[in-house]
Amino acid sequence: QLQLVESGGGLVQPGGSLRLSCAASGFTSPYNYAVAWFRQAPGKEREAISCISSSGGTTEHADSVKGRFSISRDNAKNTVYLQMNSLKPEDTAVYYCAARGGYRGTYYCAVRPGLYTYDFWGQGTQVTVSS
User: Fold this and answer.
1) 73-114 confidence digits (pLDDT tens)
2) Contact status, residue 129 vs residue 91, Cβ threshold 8 Å
3) Which long-range contacts link 40-44 to residues 24+ away (Cβ below 8 Å)?
């Protein structure tokens, strides 16, 4: 059972930066998993914003964060990072990481709703962008 723990959230001023981490555990290597970052603001639907394939070779970002956010992974540390720059008040939300994977092949992801199902979710970390 893959377990995911997010960290790095907090309060930041507009224009500032944060780096979120998604640490994975509870699996036996080799286990290949793609990771997507989602966010949900109060009163809004959850949206996928960034994702990275199990190899790290493919990444995707939603238009709302393209050019400001980047995603990377360190498979030696079983951790995926979301670097968020030029933060705006509308980025305020609870951020979740989610994963899909298995023991064979490369696993991909997408920010388009409904294309993939994610089997494992973290508990979320709050990001607040405010002056």
Assistant:
1) 999 999 999 999 999 999 999 999 999 998 889 999 999 988
2) yes
3) 40/93, 40/94, 40/96, 41/90, 41/92, 41/93, 41/94, 44/93
